[in-house]
Write a structure and sequence with these properties.
By secondary structure, the protein is an alpha+beta fold. It has helices at residues 9-18, 20-41, 67-77, 81-89, 94-103, 106-115, 118-121, 128-136, 162-220, 225-257, 262-283, 295-331, 354-384, 389-401; strands at residues 60-66, 137-141, 150-157, 337-341. It has a four-stranded antiparallel β-sheet. The longest helix has 59 residues, at 162-220. Residues 86-91 have low confidence and may be disordered.
């Protein structure tokens, strides 16, 4: 062959035909070994050292989590609403994230390990028994919509013993319920105690302000201090106008009849009476009316008592609403996580897919051998070129080092 000629498709085909025995033989050998290993795996125990393809079963449970249930878990796990919003922004399902965090927690894993004696039966692996369990827990969100009002989640467990896998996944769901119910009850009881104490304190403060208001009204005989102040101001204005008229009339009478005339004396007496009434109206209580000079301070005092009473009544109403909502949450707490589909003992394994594995190994082996055949052809052609023998030896030396 001409060393300077390029490698064509014709050369490619010739190289494959030249080494067809290597390609076909190696591919068939890989297929035979794989089939033998798979056949052997059906007769050996799942934990046997030579069993490379043990049957693995995965029973699963589908659960539905409501928004109320997630809110309880959010507070118990210390996850903020901002974190939940971050889940939504990246398109993740916050329901799934919280359930997955809870079911993979050390509390449930340790209890499963203890109840099923996994500390003694599980072979040492990276991460110990917890790591062994975490590798076999399978959780999957079935609702992808961020922040829906509810979400469906699949929880499964992989094991070579389908009965063991079935028992473990059911126990995991039971522990999840127990954990969640405990968290729910603890949160609800704490909130309930806080609200009951707040309601009780608010009721006492409302009664105190009511008593202060009653005492104020009994002392000053008024239910609306603004109205009384308006009435007294009008009365004072009337007396001032009447006083002005009497003084004008007195000046006129004195001019024509003299200062000591009976009419003048009568008008002076009336003027004195009006002045005394105005003074008493401003400084003393007349007919149950509050003195005008005390009204500003009393008005401030009355306003403070009334406003405090209104504020406490508003707070009390809101606290009662929160308490009623909490009672409804307590009643419906058992419905926050519901099992939609029970786990069943699986009939067939989820792994291995022996046909897919066989095809993958055959195809992979075939292409690897083809690449090796082409590389061998390249080395042979390189050796035929003048002055390239050293390069071939260098490549072979490099390959041996690998």
């Amino acid at each position: 062959m001409n060393g300077k000629r390029s490698f064509t498709i014709h050369d490619f085909v010739l190289a494959l035909v030249k080494r067809k025995t290597l390609i076909v033989g190696t591919t068939l050998l890989a297929m035979f070994i794989t089939v033998a290993a798979m056949r052997l795996s059906t007769t050996l125990a799942p934990d046997h050292d030579w069993n490379y393809f043990p049957d693995t079963f995965q029973p699963g449970v589908k659960v539905m989590v409501t928004w109320m249930g997630m809110a309880v878990m959010q507070e118990s796990l210390g996850i903020s609403r901002r974190s939940l919003g971050a889940f939504a922004l990246v398109g993740a399902n916050p329901f799934f994230a919280m359930i997955d965090q809870l079911i993979r927690g050390n509390t449930i894993l340790d209890q499963i390990s203890e109840e099923f004696d996994l500390y003694d039966t599980v072979s040492p692996t990276k991460g110990g028994t917890r790591g062994w369990l975490l590798q076999r827990i399978v959780t999957l969100p079935l609702t992808q919509t961020p922040l829906p009002t509810f979400s469906f989640i699949s929880i499964g467990f992989r094991h070579t013993d389908k009965i063991m896998a079935y028992r473990i996944v059911n126990r995991m769901i039971e522990l999840l319920h127990e954990k969640f119910d405990a968290m729910t009850s603890e949160n609800l009881r704490a909130k309930k105690r806080y609200l009951e104490l707040s309601i009780s304190d608010t009721e006492h403060e409302i009664e105190r302000y009511k008593e202060d208001l009653k005492r104020f009204q009994r002392e000053y005989g008024v239910f609306d201090i603004d109205r009384q102040a308006s009435q007294q101001a009008n009365l004072l204005a009337q007396k001032m106008v009447e006083l002005l008229k009497k003084e004008l009339e007195l000046r006129s009478v004195q001019r024509y009849f003299g200062i000591d005339s009976p009419r003048s004396r009568m008008l002076r007496g009336q003027i004195d009476t009006i002045n005394r009434f105005i003074t008493e109206l401003q400084t003393e209580s007349i007919g149950g009316l509050i003195p005008l000079e005390k009204i500003p301070d009393l008005k401030d005092q009355y306003t403070v008592i009334s406003q405090n009473l209104k504020i406490k009544l508003s707070i009390y109403e809101k606290l009662r609403k929160e308490y009623e909502k909490l009672r409804l949450s307590e009643i419906s707490s058992l419905e926050n996580i519901q099992i939609v589909e029970q786990a069943e003992i699986p009939e067939g394994p989820v792994f291995p897919n022996r046909l897919m594995i066989l095809l993958t190994i055959i195809i992979t082996t075939f292409f690897e051998v083809v690449i090796w055949a082409l590389f061998k052809e390249y080395l042979e052609r390189l050796k035929e070129r003048p002055g390239e023998a050293d390069k071939v030896r260098e490549i072979k030396t490099m390959l041996k080092r690998l």
